[in-house]
Amino acid sequence: MFEYSGSIHIHSTYSDGTSKIEEIAKYANETNLDFIIITDHNTMQAKTDGLERWYDNTLVIVGCEINDANNKNHYIAVGLDKLFGKFKQLPNNELGSELSAKEYIKKIKEKGAAGFVAHPFEKRSSIPGHPAYPWTEWSSDDFDGIEIWNHMSEWIEGITENNKFQRFFHPLKSIVTPDVKSVKKWDEINLKRKVAAIGSVDAHAHRHKIMGYEIIIFPYKILFKSIRTHVFVENEIIKGDNKNFNKYSKEISDALKTGHSFIVNHYHGDGKGFRFYAEYCDKIYNMGDDFTFDKAECKTFKLKTYLPKAARIKLIKNGKVIDEYEGMESNWELDEPGNYRVESWIRDKAWIFSNYIRINS
Fold first, then answer.
1. Would residue 328 be called left, alpha or beta, if left means φ above 0 and alpha means ψ between -120 and 50 degrees?
2. Bridge partners, 359 (sequence order)
3. Which conformational region is residue 11 in: left (phi greater than 0), alpha (psi within -120 to 50 degrees), or beta?
4. Together in a domain, 190 and 327
5. Domain endpoint, select from 244, 268, 292
6. Residues 116 and 171 in one domain
7. Residue 248 near residue 221 (C-beta atoms within 8 A)
8. Cβ–Cβ contacts within 10 Å for residue 99, how many?
9. The pTM is what?
């Protein structure tokens, strides 16, 4: 398996972002991102315009962020050839799909693309003009994953009168942990069916006036140093190879969909090299995999994890912590089926969250 680091949920001037894709790609190159995923609101015009390609060492994939006619149920789609359905004008020059959330989720799945619930429990209200866009369509069983960590949502929701200037001028220091409700929901759904987790930046590079000066709250280059999602793919991605661009793009989309990935707060350290896998009857199973455990074949299975540097390691089973300690690696020999994942913390700040390995009875 080959590991690649990317930044997801990025807006350009094709919707409400403030930079062109060529500029955004330049910032991604400067921060050593292997890929980025553009998700402008209700449009894939950038793909039509030929902007989905390699930019030096960064693969730029064009997806989209779709919402319903009430501007709720924002949904990230990756791997679509083109956008479908009709859209109508909403207040504040925004658009909304005429399809219900349940309908566009299903259509995205039918087209073989990956789909993720965006900022599901958003409740921000600190900055006028940037209201919350929570998720309400939980009756669907067709979404592939949940965005459990969204930089912009966490940043805005934590603003108070006492800390707002610190948060404006130091947008990376205030990011602590994935949204607790989103993680809990992710854990609960995985008890019924497989659902992957991703982390994102939700980058717009909004401009605001502070004491008469215009500042960019979230410069793209700064956000690219925060929440990243690392993927594992079976074939090596050759940088600059536009001939096989579609193949590479699909491999990344599929890795996100299946949970062959993990989330890193890059501000606390490069997550490359993190591993979490299972050994059972001489076979290896990685994040996003599932297998059936039968004591008649092998009495136990092993879980192993490795970190790039020492941190607090937590082993999670079915949403609950069952073991934790400090170190760079850990091994567990177990004989109980369940859904297992790992969290890594540096003091009180979340660093790495793995996807699940699901072990069935």
1. alpha
2. 291, 338
3. beta
4. no
5. 268
6. yes
7. no
8. 18
9. 0.94
